[in-house]
Amino acid sequence: YIKTLNLSETVKQLQAATIEIPNDNSYTKYLFLLGYFYIHGLGVQKNIDFAFEYFKTAAENGDVLGSLWLGSCYLENIGTPTTNYENNKREGIHWYAKSAKSGNHAAQSFLAEYYTLQPNYDPVKSFRWRNLGAENGNRAAQLVTARLYIH
């Protein structure tokens, strides 16, 4: 759908494309891309509030990358409606898990680390997510999983 490499024009095209919801999954991809452009200030003035809302809408409509980035926003308090760390952490893990369950190896590897570093370390959850990340191509997860099998 994008007809130009001019980022400002690309943002306008994406915004226009999200006004009417298409019958395919391109809608959520456009929302994710808009969030990505806004969080990094690509073709638009950086706006973390807009980025958060685009990621949220993409995630709520099933976009795997939208879920991943929304989880990151919550965990890092980027554009979130509240700065309550515990609530944001819970929301962040929820969205990472949605992305991970959809096969995103970055989210799977993140959850493996998260469960490894918790005070109430859960080796089963940690290994499960790391192994899934490894199976889905995450090189770091593959290395750690191989080391776990060796030892």
From TrEMBL:
UniProt superkingdom: Eukaryota
Stored InterPro entries: Sel1-like, Sel1_AlgK, TPR-like_helical_dom_sf
Gene3D superfamilies per record: Tetratricopeptide repeat domain
Residues passing through the membrane, by range: none
Family statement: Belongs to the sel-1 family.
Protein name, entry field: 8579_t:CDS:1
Organism: Ambispora leptoticha
